[in-house]
Specification:
There is one protein chain. By secondary structure, this protein is an alpha+beta fold. Helices cover about 25% and strands about 25% of the residues. It has 14 helices and 28 strands. Helix 7 packs across helix 9. It starts with 19 loop residues before the first helix and ends with a strand.
């Protein structure tokens, strides 16, 4: 082992002159990754809800406190990883501070040490009235969680740094030592005992940024609120006294008095100020997006409904269910919005607005206004291909869409049956479709994905598109082809390709996907005359631009669906910026022999592997004998001599 060394330099974020704004930007950019790291290292005996909030508190407290860097303290280990994030000094510092705090939370608290106890129970973030906890995973994730629970905090940290951060052994030792670990080498030995594959660390099971909500003890909460009411009344009296003329809590500079009304904000609440496009505006406009959708529906003149919808948008009450796709702000409109739809859908009154950046859906029961819902979806930069339909409502596993004014026909197609004839969907005069069975449905006998229904649209001019519901307000567009040359997946070859990968769309639900592309990047001859395997790369791009999800899949002969070989979040692979990919997987031949298969996209001239399997092959394919459960690290070389790392 090399000695533990640290590196500092004058411009390093450990210097007292650290720029807090740069540190904050790095923290925000990598926030989901840091939160997942903290969640995995924190003590497993914490309840999942408290563990998730504690992880957020740990990450948020990792930001230096002031511009003088008084709380930056510490040194960052010398970088020995190829991971691009580790080359960012601000990220390296944030990761060190998060790791140090998470390890500290796992150590026994000193008796009567108030600061130590506060650090274990962060004051922020707080959630009132709800229990938030990560989504439940499968049997593999549960097994990994149990194995991690048997490790010490330092052992968990070692496993996570190597598996999630992909640090080398030396870099892991350095970082553990810098974070205050007492026995870094022993921690690595503990991590080696975990049998589960590190890829499971990317599962939603361990993502404290994708949470489910459940109510707390309602009876006890009501009792507490009654007691709090008396206290609040006393505070109101004191607050009134403080609010008398004078400085009060402190001067607000050039701000208007608290009772002043913002003209644009008031206009956003007035239904008479709502804008709308002409019915034929899309035919002559330079833009073909939601801005040229006309206002449709039977309630576009219902001022009372529109006023309620605008008021709830600006000030959603406690009983309103609010949801937003990742990266979408849920605040009030900056000014008068555009009305897209107002009408009744499956027992609810529904209103759709567009403010130039977001589509907003308001829904309330036909009888009364209780249990209203408010949904936000980001749609900035939408073009015609991404503005073909919006979800009006979901009922009993079915979806109704509002289609764009340029759509001439709508049908339902099962991706799992590429040769089947699409079922035509009736549409009202306003462009509302009949209910369409949502997403994938399992086979009652096998439990596997048996169907995946999508919306097929025909547009004026002869164009066709496929859209799939991924549980959000905007359906995702399905395409097929090489990066930069993808086309709508309506041709026979594209449909055949999607029929084998359709079930993987379930892994992209709820992540704000704008489009999903499937690309068959290689066909590899298999050993022992077992036919040919097809390698596919499925890339989901988001409306927010970053955090794309990439899945490498392999389809073996005789298999009905492709198997996911590797996946990554935020990788440029299979995209326009990086139109290359390399992935590998273990495969068992018909004769019972195990092989490590690997395939790269066109332009890869060499594939090598280290670890349990050490082989090198010329060209873009590798097939090496292996043992079941073998672990290996893949690397490729491109024709220009550059290195191509395997998708993780």
């Amino acid at each position: 082992m090399q000695s533990q060394d640290v590196a500092t330099r004058p411009d390093h974020p450990t210097d007292p002159a650290t720029d807090v704004e740069r540190a904050g930007a790095a923290l925000v950019e990598h926030y989901p990754r840091l939160a997942r790291l903290a969640y995995l290292v924190l003590p497993p005996d914490l309840p999942r809800a408290r563990r998730a909030l504690t992880a957020h508190g740990v990450v948020q407290r990792s930001l230096p406190r002031d511009r003088n860097g008084q709380s930056v303290g510490g040194v960052v280990p010398a970088r020995r990883s190829d991971d691009s994030r580790s080359a960012d000094p601000e990220y390296a510092l944030a990761r060190l501070r998060v790791l140090r705090a998470a390890l500290s939370a796992g150590r026994p608290a000193k008796r009567f040490a108030l600061a130590d106890r506060v650090r274990r129970r962060p004051a922020l973030p707080l959630v009132w009235g709800l229990k938030l906890f990560p989504r439940s995973g499968g049997a593999d994730e549960l097994a990994l969680d149990r194995q991690l629970a048997d490790l010490s905090a330092e052992g968990r940290a070692a496993y996570v740094l190597r598996g999630l951060e992909r640090l080398s052994e030396d870099a892991t030792l350095d970082l553990l030592a810098a974070a205050g670990a007492k026995d870094p080498e022993g921690a690595l030995d503990e991590a080696d005992e975990v049998e589960a594959p590190p890829a499971l660390l990317e599962s939603p099971e361990f993502d404290p940024c994708a949470l489910q909500a459940r109510p707390t003890d309602l009876v006890r909460r009501r009792q507490h609120f009654r007691a709090a009411g008396v206290t609040l009344a006393a505070l109101v009296v004191c607050g009134t006294l403080l609010g008398l003329p004078g400085e009060g809590w402190g001067p607000d500079g050039a701000a208007a008095p608290p009772y002043a009304r913002n003209p644009a904000g008031q206009a956003a609440l007035d239904p008479d100020q709502l804008t709308g496009a002409e019915a034929t505006a899309w035919e002559t406009s330079d833009r073909t997006d939601f801005s040229v959708w006309p206002a449709r529906g039977s309630h576009t003149k219902d001022k009372a409904l529109l006023r309620r919808a605008l008021a709830v948008w600006a000030r959603p009450g406690g009983s309103v269910r609010v949801s937003a796709t990742p990266g979408t702000a849920s605040g009030a409109a900056p000014g008068p919005a555009q009305l897209l739809y107002a009408g009744e859908v499956d027992g609810a009154r529904v209103v759709l607005f567009y403010d130039g950046l977001r589509v907003v859906r308001y829904a309330e029961p036909v009888e009364g206004t209780r249990d209203a819902a408010l949904d936000f979806a980001r749609v900035d930069g939408a073009q015609r291909a991404g503005a073909g339909a919006l979800v009006l409502g979901r009922t009993d596993g079915n979806v109704r869409y509002l289609t764009a004014p340029w759509v001439t026909d709508a049908s339902m197609r099962d991706l799992r049956e590429p040769g089947s004839t699409p079922v035509k969907l009736r549409r009202s005069a306003d462009g509302v479709t009949d209910p369409l069975a949502a997403g994938g449905r399992p086979d009652p006998n096998t439990g596997l994905c048996a169907t995946w229904h999508v919306l097929q649209l025909e547009e004026r001019g002869g164009g066709e598109r496929l859209l799939t519901d991924l549980g959000e307000l905007t359906p995702a567009r399905l395409t097929s082809g090489t990066p930069g040359g993808a086309r709508d997946a309506t041709g026979k070859g594209a449909l055949d390709e999607w029929s084998r990968t359709a079930c993987s769309l379930a892994m992209l639900q709820g992540q704000g996907m704008r489009s999903v592309n499937s690309w068959a990047y290689a066909r590899q001859p298999l050993p022992q005359g077992n036919g040919e395997a097809t390698w596919l790369c499925t890339r989901g791009d988001t409306w927010r631009g970053g955090e794309a999800r990439v899945l490498a899949q392999v389809l073996a002969p005789g298999k009905p669906v492709a198997a996911v070989a590797a996946q990554s979040s935020g990788s440029p692979a299979c995209g326009v910026r990086e139109p290359r990919v390399l992935a590998g997987a273990l495969w068992k031949s018909d004769a019972g022999s195990w092989y490590l298969l690997a395939a790269g996209s066109a332009g890869v001239t060499e594939v090598s592997t280290t670890g349990d399997v050490a082989e090198k092959a010329t060209g873009r394919f590798l097939a090496a004998p292996a043992q079941q459960g073998a672990q290996a690290q893949l690397r490729g070389r491109n024709a220009d001599g550059s290195v191509l790392h395997a998708l993780h």
